[in-house]
Amino acid sequence: MVRYSAAQLAPVIDHFGGSLAPLLPDYRVKILDGNCIEASEHRIEALRYTNAGALPGKSLVVYDPALKLALEVFACEDGHAQERSLLDSVLASVEPGDLWLGDRNFCVRKMLLGIAERRGCFLMRAHKKLAWQAISPLAEVGQIDTGVVYEQVISIEDDRGHGLPLRRVVLVLDRPTRDGETEIVLLTNVPSEAASACALATLYRSRWLIEGAFQELAEHLSSEINTLGYPRAALFGFCVALVASNVLSVVKAALRSVHGVEKIEEEVSGYYIADEIAGVYRGMLIAIALEHWRVFSVLTDDAMASLELAGRVRLSAFKKHRRGPKKKPPRRSSKKNEPHVSTARLIAHRRVRNKTP
Fold first, then answer.
1. Could you tell me which residues come within 8 angstroms of residue 82 by beta carbon, excluding any fewer than 6 positions away?
2. Tell me: the pLDDT tens digits for 249-295?
3. Based on the structure, what is the number of domains in the chain?
4. Are the CB atoms for 255 and 313 separated by under 8 Å?
């Protein structure tokens, strides 16, 4: 279902001219990341006798950042299964000219060799347990806005002892990450003439685009319904949300083609668009007879893209409301003999205090 929606909608976005600039010319970037559906309520009989959080499943999602479409989803009913157990299915979808971005969890020999064997490329964060041999020493090659970049040539071996030469890119950070890490190590088989080490270190930061997509799925499209305890139901609900997200991506692509990329990406809220569709949809089905909808099922991609609707959208109704910078939380006090306080009394006391000169 997700794969079908992406195949149907991608040509429409191309006809709009609404796709974003490619992250790396001549490559189709695909971001791979896992999603574990949050613990469900204990409604079904199998869950009524445990207090543990019940995980109804997980999945791997393939995301196209240029089209902003979920291309594939590889679902697994076992919420405790390792994401790597799904990599065989992922490898079957690799195409020549792909550039796969992934975190260190996917940086295993099988995945790297499999992508290269299918004439694809990868840019993966290195896993410490991956065995490799150095071919050249690590040397400084430049600097980006987050740190100093180093590069060397290494090799990993397949089961027959044949080596696959790779580029090992090390970004030494100016400031440690939240986890206290001081460097980010990347492995890639992208040729040096296609992208420099500094360009690849910058490009890898785009992997976080899929995290933003997951956040929009959860917050705007209710992708994780915790009343769905059965794994297939929970995974189906997640996939329906992915399809809805793909439809929203077409709407945003149409708006980008008319109003410009920067205005739509920076100012238009996906939440308000989703809310508008959810609020108006049922009424439109009641007010507009079925025969008037059938015309859309036979339109070609070019005809669908030529509908002049995006220019009539009142963007001010869907404007993002950005929050200001976070304030440092004040120190809280507690008294042993006062486990509860009256909110009304605290508000009244604060008003009196603020009025006092």
1. none
2. 999 999 998 888 888 888 888 888 888 888 888 888 889 988 888 88
3. 1
4. yes
Contact in structure between 161 and 131 (CB atoms under 8 Å): no
Indicate whether 242 belongs to any domain: yes
CA atoms of 273 and 251, how far apart (whole Å): 9
SS3 state of residue 226: coil
Q: Does residue 197 belong to any structural domain of this protein?
A: no
pLDDT tens-place string over residues 175-198: 988 888 899 999 999 999 999 999
What tokens were used for 40? 């469900």
What would you report as the CA-atom Rg of the chain, rounded to the nearest whole angstrom? 25
> Is 233 part of any domain?
yes
Task: Answer for the pair 79, 57: CB distance below 8 angstroms, yes or no.
Answer: yes
Among 200, 191, 242, residue whose Cα is nearest residue 221: 242
Using CA atoms, how far apart are residues 274 and 269, in angstroms rounded to an integer? 9
AA identity, residue 26: D
Question: Please, what sign has the CA dihedral across residues 123, 124, 125, 129?
Answer: negative
